[in-house]
Design brief:
- Helices cover about 0% and strands about 50% of the residues.
- The chain is an all-beta fold.
- Strands 2, 4, 5, 6, 9, 10 and 11 form a 7-stranded mixed beta sheet that branches.
- A hairpin with a 5-residue loop joins strand 5 and strand 6.
- It is globular and about 40 Å long.
- The mean pLDDT is about 95.
Amino acid sequence: DVQLQAYGGGLVQAGGSLRLSCATSGFTFADYDIGWFRQVPGKEREGVSCINNNDGSTYYAESVRGRFTISSDSAKNTVYLQMNSLKPEDTAVYYCAARPNLWGLGSKHPVMAKRDFGSWGQGTQVTVSS
């Protein structure tokens, strides 16, 4: 039974940092990519970052590149999203999700296509005050 649990959100001032965690279970960690998505009310869920747990390759959306860092700990089956230099526009509910790493993050296949991610965790709220 595939399970993902996202936690670590909270309230932070602009310029601050937070680290989100996504604890996973029920599947072979190295066989899956883990993605982070975020959503604000009235908008579509957007892809933020993704990591291939087999080769460690990563992807970042342009809006967070240079500020966010994704990493994974295979011993704990956990993926982290370190968020620095947070901005009010980063305010959203953040979700982690898993997909089989069939394509590679450098391939032509879209990295953050939501339809590819079959398992989702519950969201964790991140609020950045100005």
